[in-house]
Write a structure and sequence with these properties.
370 residues; alpha+beta; 12-stranded antiparallel sheet; 3-stranded antiparallel sheet; 6 helices; 17 strands
Length: 370
């Protein structure tokens, strides 16, 4: 039996089951009826991977060896993220869609069987765990040749509603501790499918960067009684020089201590912990600034910029009064034909060195004619 759910902004979610047991979710705004069956033969799903602790830094590493055989840069006529047409049977059985979300066919993380708990941390003797979590694919458009900046404002609003819905629903799972929607774009940063899409990783642990941000935010709050991220945004608004776009509900800026040639943070002016807490007013005003930011990024050099666009939000069960939602877009492109490689200092030591100041990249972004 299909599950149909009415969301905000006129979005309707329809859940259907694929032949191999995975769930596909259609997010529609035009009254579409989803009834096409998955015509592919059922395939056995990969088993759950391992979770191993790196005791030198107390960080979890997921082992997902089955991902070695996943699809890698197929031609357009074999794209598994396009709608099903003719003899091309893809992940999406329907011949058209707005936004669609489905469980990843080769997930790094997957739901555990039965009860789940992370192993106790006891250094190098820490037990091996299972790579519990959830990995979902989210397709932005049926158009293989499209990209984020070419989406209509209505489509971006529907996409945001899907992100909010997935955050809300995944947060109910007892084994989920943190949810991270993100988009990878460009072969330079390792994209394996060219179709405009993103992913949603729901972790059974708090990822290292989030854990560090939370520790720093707690210390700041203990010292000042204030939320660190709110102070950071206040500084950016006060300085102004790094602000590249703003409307009644959002601001976009290049952060004071950027780590990448082009790094943009898009932040709601009314702070919230996660996507699910965004108001309808803030949600409705997001598409304009999101599309503008992406157009500015691609307009700097007049080429499609490789980037990672990731939503940072508070963990599901802790730090919700200390961490704030923001959309971080980072690009390793520093000039046409030149990339910033994360080499010795960055990759080995975790110490970033910038060749250009964020004020410079902010100026280049602001100079783009929209």
């Amino acid at each position: 039996m299909d599950e149909i759910l009415q969301l905000s902004a006129g979005v309707v979610r329809t859940n259907r089951t694929m032949n191999d047991g995975r769930t596909i979710r259609y997010y529609d705004t035009a009254g579409q009826k989803r009834s096409v069956e998955d015509q592919r033969p059922a395939e056995e799903q990969p088993g759950i991977g391992e979770l191993r602790l790196d005791p030198l830094v107390n960080e979890w590493v997921a082992m997902a060896a089955h991902r070695q055989s996943r699809v890698f840069l197929p031609p357009k006529e074999l794209c598994p993220l396009c709608p099903t047409t003719g003899d091309l049977l893809t992940e999406i059985p329907e011949n058209d869609f707005e936004i669609v979300v489905f469980d990843n066919r080769s997930p790094s993380l997957r739901p555990p069987d039965g009860d789940f708990a992370l192993p106790d941390l006891v250094g190098s003797d820490t037990d091996e765990g299972v790579a519990a979590g959830k990995c979902e694919v989210i397709c932005f458009t049926a158009d293989h040749g499209g990209d984020f900046k070419s989406l209509s404002p209505q489509r971006v609003r529907t996409l945001l509603e899907a992100w909010k819905d997935r955050t809300r629903e995944l947060s109910q799972q007892p084994f989920i501790e943190h949810i991270a929607p993100f988009e990878n774009r460009g072969e330079e940063i390792g994209v394996t499918l060219a179709h405009p899409h993103g992913q949603i990783y729901a972790y059974s642990f708090v990822p290292p960067r989030v854990s560090k941000m939370l520790a720093v935010a707690r210390e700041h709050h203990q010292k000042t009684g204030r939320v660190l991220f709110d102070d950071v945004v206040a500084r950016e608004l006060r300085d102004g020089v790094r602000v590249i776009a703003k409307n009644d509900h959002w601001v976009a800026y290049t952060p004071y201590a950027s780590r990448y040639p082009f790094e943009i943070h898009v932040v709601p002016l009314t702070p919230v912990a996660d996507l699910a807490e965004l108001s309808d007013a803030a949600s409705d005003s997001f598409p304009a600034i999101a599309i503008e930011v992406m157009k500015r990024l691609d307009g700097v050099f007049g080429i499609d910029m490789a980037y990672i666009a990731a939503w940072h939000q508070a963990p599901v069960r802790e730090g919700r009064d200390l961490l704030r939602l923001h959309w971080q877009i980072t690009s390793v492109r520093r000039a046409p034909g030149k990339l910033k490689y994360l080499a010795g200092s960055e990759s080995a030591m975790g110490a970033f060195i910038m060749d250009m100041k964020p004020e410079q990249s902010a100026g280049q972004l602001k100079d783009v004619k929209i």
